[in-house]
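Problem 12. The chain below contains 210 residues. Write out its predicted structure in token notation.
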Amino acid sequence: MLIRKLFLSLLAAIALTACSNDPEYHGLTPGQKEAYGKAIAGEYDGTYIIIMLHNDGSNYTEKVQNVQMTITDQSMHSVQFHDFPVSMLSKVVANPALAEALATAPNADFMADYRFYSMPNSDDVNWGFELANVPLTLHYSGADHHLLLRLSSSVYCELTKASLDAGTPFAHLGGLQFDVTGIYEGDTLVQALDGWQDNNHFIAYFQLNK
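Solution.
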């Protein structure tokens, strides 16, 4: 278990260069928010890197190329990830019927709400996002099931003023991480995916094209 935790920590450290879990909570002026929002708004091409860690100690990594992320300006402060490969979750769930249904599930788009957090005595800024749950309807075991994928991201990335001014705010980052922490039907947990509790773990990175 200790080795597993160290492995997860190492993955995060390598893939999320210039990101941290501890943003500075200081206010930004409305003008700064508007300027920073315009600087990051746009369409970004990239690759999903999916890391699946199993509770038996095995792990698998797969890549899905030619995917996109859309960021709006500060007025909407949203991020949309496109064509997320829901079918890959079939490899980490315990219920065979659910796994079979997931294997043929279509890709999904999902949203996040972003925020800026200023850094003291600096024009650089921390940036992070909070993900919405992803609704998913699957038919298995003779019935329709209305599920929710619960997603989590607690990572905040430093965007330098130089990169914002140059129009390349994310060029220095290894990727934007988020986890699928569980699959729910209503309030009922169908499959836990929090690797810290000896469950399988499903980690995703959106790696931006350089």
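Discussion. The longest helix spans residues 2-15. Students who got a different answer should revisit the alignment rule from Section 12.3.
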